[in-house]
């Protein structure tokens, strides 16, 4: 299993955007499972789960790792899938908008759990979403270049930090706004 797979191709993103496939990958985050286990956890029939698992396997997102009794155990082919949707296809654009909204909500939730005082949650989520969108747009070409480069999680983390740093001057106003929204005015 690789640490990171970068996904930028619209066809691959469409494949991942399908709800059942996304749920299958989420279920396999902690350990490999059989079709039966996935079917039971997702409350879907085995043939539906098999069809989705086969599509994910064919695309390189899943791999067969062992046999348990008479069933194959499937695992993710990477611990992290860095999904960076590019392209103007309607499905990709819709996925990208939804993806950025979900990520912005998650980040806001993390900030709240960490004890940051969020003054206006809706405005904070909207600003975070806009920041993520801008960072994503600025990072488009460099991320595309590393799509087939094998790297560890920590290398990915550092790579993304450098990309943000390279564009940090362009984000100063939004950084000031966000600091106020989460109570870091004097930081």
From TrEMBL:
Q: Which domain of life is it from?
A: Archaea
Q: Which Gene3D superfamilies match?
A: Winged helix-like DNA-binding domain superfamily/Winged helix DNA-binding domain
Q: Which residues form a coiled coil?
A: none
Domain HTH arsR-type, first and last residues per copy: 1-95
Checking SUPFAM superfamilies in the record gives: Winged helix' DNA-binding domain
Q: Name the keywords, alphabetized.
A: DNA-binding, Transcription, Transcription regulation
Q: Name one GO molecular function term.
A: DNA binding
Tell me which InterPro entries the record gives. ArsR-like_HTH (IPR011991), HTH_ArsR_DNA-bd_dom (IPR001845), HTH_MetalResp_TranReg (IPR051081), WH-like_DNA-bd_sf (IPR036388), WH_DNA-bd_sf (IPR036390)
Listed SMART domains = HTH_ARSR (SM00418)
Classification via Pfam families: HTH_20
PANTHER family assigned: HTH ARSR-TYPE DOMAIN-CONTAINING PROTEIN, TRANSCRIPTIONAL REGULATOR, ARSR FAMILY
What name appears for this protein in its UniProt entry? HTH arsR-type domain-containing protein
Q: Which organism is it from?
A: Palaeococcus pacificus DY20341
């Amino acid at each position: 299993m690789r640490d990171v797979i970068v996904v930028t191709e619209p066809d691959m993103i469409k494949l991942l955007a399908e709800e059942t496939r996304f749920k299958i990958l989420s279920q396999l985050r902690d350990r490999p499972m059989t079709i039966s286990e996935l079917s039971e956890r997702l409350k879907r029939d085995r043939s539906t789960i098999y069809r989705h698992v086969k599509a994910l396997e064919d695309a390189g997102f899943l791999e067969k790792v062992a046999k348990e009794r008479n069933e194959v155990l499937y695992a993710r082919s990477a611990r992290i899938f860095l999904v960076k949707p590019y392209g103007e296809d309607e499905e990709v654009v819709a996925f990208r908008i939804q993806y950025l909204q979900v990520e912005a909500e998650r980040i806001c939730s993390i900030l709240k759990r960490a004890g940051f005082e969020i003054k206006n949650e809706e405005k904070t989520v909207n600003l975070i979403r806009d920041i993520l969108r801008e960072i994503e747009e600025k990072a488009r070409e460099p991320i595309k270049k590393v799509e087939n480069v094998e790297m560890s999680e920590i290398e990915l983390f550092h790579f993304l930090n450098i990309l943000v740093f390279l564009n940090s001057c362009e984000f100063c106003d939004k950084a000031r706004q966000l600091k106020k929204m989460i109570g870091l005015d004097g930081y």
